[in-house]
Amino acid sequence: MRNTLLFILISILIFSCSKYEDGPNITFRSSQKRLENGTWHSQTLIYKSTESDIPDMYLVDFSLDGYDGYYDIVIGGDQLSGTCRLTEENTRIEFLTTTDTTGIDTIPETILSSWKILRLKNKELWIETNFENNDLEMLFKKE
Fold it and tell me: What angle do CA 69, 126, 96 make, to 5 degrees?
């Protein structure tokens, strides 16, 4: 009886301690390492409860040194680059300074957008932001 109760308590503790709303529950890789090492390919966009398939419309690469780093986003052939950071105990990604495709126009250190990380696995990333007073969710996968 005592072993069963101990097993149940340990199981509840392990499976209720997730940093992200949708998991994973247990991981041995840091958030930074899971974000890096590969290109994230957009798969799905959910806006105003409408789901749309957007395969490879957005391609995102991260290069992080601790909580701060750089990003490159390719959107239909146009490239945006800039700095980013993980905040709130690695539960949000903030995209900061950006440069247009010519590399000439730079916006000073400004938060362009802030995204809540809902799920971050080695090859799956769900993020959410508020856009025009509606939730906007995006699913990315690494290939």
Answer: 30
Residue 8 lies in a domain: no
Instruction: Write the CATH number for 32.
Output: 2.40.128.20
Answer yes or no: are the C-beta atoms of 57 and 138 closer than 8 Å: no
Q: What is the reported pTM?
A: 0.75
Residue 137 phi/psi, 5-degree rounding, is -115, 145
Distance CA 34, CA 90 (A): 11
Residue 13, domain member (yes or no) = no
The whole domain housing 52 covers 26-142
**Would you give the DSSP letter of residue 110?**
-
- Confirm if 40 and 125 have CB atoms less than 8 A apart: yes
Query: In the numeric block, which tokens belong to residue 98?
Result: 């950006």
pLDDT digits (tens, 9 = 90+) for 48-99: 889 999 989 999 999 988 788 888 888 888 888 888 889 878 889 998 866 5
